[in-house]
Amino acid sequence: MKRTLILIAVLFLSYVQAQQLAVLKYNGGGDWYSNPTAVPNLITYCNDHIGTQLNKEVAVVEPSSVSIFQYPYIHMTGHGNVVFNEADIQNLKNYLLSGGFLHIDDNYGMEPYLNKELVKLFPQKELVELPASHPIFNVYAKFPKGLPKIHEHQGQRPQAKGLFHEGRLVLLFTFESDLGDGWESPEVHNDPPEVRKKALDMGANIIKYVFTN
């Protein structure tokens, strides 16, 4: 109980102080550092469009570090392998159950590696696809069909899946969409403005959902 109260206090302070987002530096060999301009651009977009006052500097955190409790939103991406050790699993689980939020955006190729690690994280829970009526698709911009398609890979439909604890969405997994590519600076992928806007609008939805639920 005492540990839980401490964790909640740390999270509360992170909301009261300058709010900062973080990127997860995980083990396994996957390129956790891909899309380096994505989260900074999303922060600027959210500050300009949904009234947030997010710190423009993005933190880098490891899953076993107690510092993850400072960040209400942690972003994870990449193309390859993901491995969580026992310390990672316990710390991430405590973070999520104490009010934190993890958004995993598959930059293509991460899904088969990630699934086996999520089983370790919550053995009794399964990823559930979010319906288009879920607030995360409507809280700022409206996405009546759910998660938008940003980049094409294998012709599969975009999906947003979540893990819930006591009715609260604690982990969001987006794949076959590539939101992070759409958040990157225009010259990186040369996406049309309307495609980048869809990606950033969906990102703003996620951030607004995190801070209001």
Q: Could you tell me the number of beta strands?
A: 7
Nearest-angstrom radius of gyration? 16 Å
Overall CATH architecture: 3-Layer(aba) Sandwich
Helix-and-strand structural type: alpha/beta
Annotate the secondary structure layout.
Elements: H1 2-16, E1 22-24, H2 38-49, E2 59-61, E3 74-78, H3 86-97, E4 102-106, H4 111-121, E5 128-129, E6 159-165, E7 168-175, H5 179-183, H6 186-189, H7 193-212
Parallel strand pairs: 1-2, 1-3, 3-4, 4-7
Antiparallel strand pairs: 5-6, 6-7
Helix pairs in contact: 2-7
Account of the protein in words:
With 213 residues, this protein is of the alpha/beta class. It has a single domain, classed as Domain of unknown function DUF4159 (Rossmann fold, 3-Layer(aba) Sandwich). The chain is 37% helix and 15% strand. The protein contains 7 helices and 7 strands; from the N terminus they run αβαββαβαβββααα. The chain has a 7-stranded mixed β-sheet with strand order 2-1-3-4-7-6-5, with no helix packed on it. β6 and β7 form a beta hairpin. α2 crosses α7. The protein is globular and about 45 Å long. The N terminus is likely disordered.
